[in-house]
Amino acid sequence: MQFIASAAVVLDSYQLPSDMQKKLQPGRPRDPATDNAITEAVISLLLERGLDATTIDAVALRSGVARPTIYRRFKDKHMMVAASVEKILEEDLPAPQLGSDARENVLTMMMNTIDLLTKTPFGGIFRLVIPHLPDRSRLVALTNEIGDQRRIVFNEVLREAQASGVVSPDK
After folding, report:
1. N or C, fewer C-beta in 10 Å, the chain?
2. Number of C-alpha atoms within 13 angstroms, CB side, residue 53?
């Protein structure tokens, strides 16, 4: 019996190579065009109608995909909105290259954040969604999770800038 338990531990800790993991996933691979259509529908609905009117049904209709297609990707509306916002952040607020010019990284991060809030759909969504956050604890948790990932990168950029003397440490 102990041998079986030991073998189970070894098998649980073994990671298959990524190409084999992909082969073992059930079903067809997801179509990136469908993902993009859903994201675009979410963003446009948020900007046109606000958070309350951005429903799974409205996104399905706007994106031209079936409701089950959306539910296979997202557990609920809040996860769908958070994933769409995260995708915009990844596209419009690229992470700087750590280990490169610290001064340039700080300036780039600051300018990208300003541009994100003033020149992209995210700025409009941010202004529309923020007033709703106190009433939507699930959406708050998801947006905090996205923000935490960004803060980690920004903190690392600032640490590098402090270490290189570009930014003086807090006193």
Report:
1. C
2. 11
Q: Which two tokens stand for residue 54?
A: 């951005």
Tokens linked to 33: 């065009």
User: If phi over 0 gives left and psi between -120 and 50 gives alpha, with beta otherwise, what is residue 64?
Assistant: left
Instruction: List the Cα angle 157/155/43 in 5-degree steps.
Output: 95
Angle CA 122–80–117, to nearest 5: 10
Q: Which two tokens stand for residue 131?
A: 């007033």
For residue 28, the number of C-alpha atoms closer than 13 Å in the C-beta half-sphere is 5
Q: How far is CA 146 from the centre of its chain?
A: 6
Give dist(CA 140, CA 81) in Å, integer: 11
For residue 134, the 8-state DSSP code is G
State pLDDT tens for residues 125-157: 777 776 666 556 666 666 666 666 677 777 887
End-to-end CA distance of the chain: 60
Do 89 and 122 touch, CB atoms closer than 8 A? yes
Six token digits for residue 171: 């006193």
CA–CA distance, 164 with 155 (Å, rounded to integer): 14
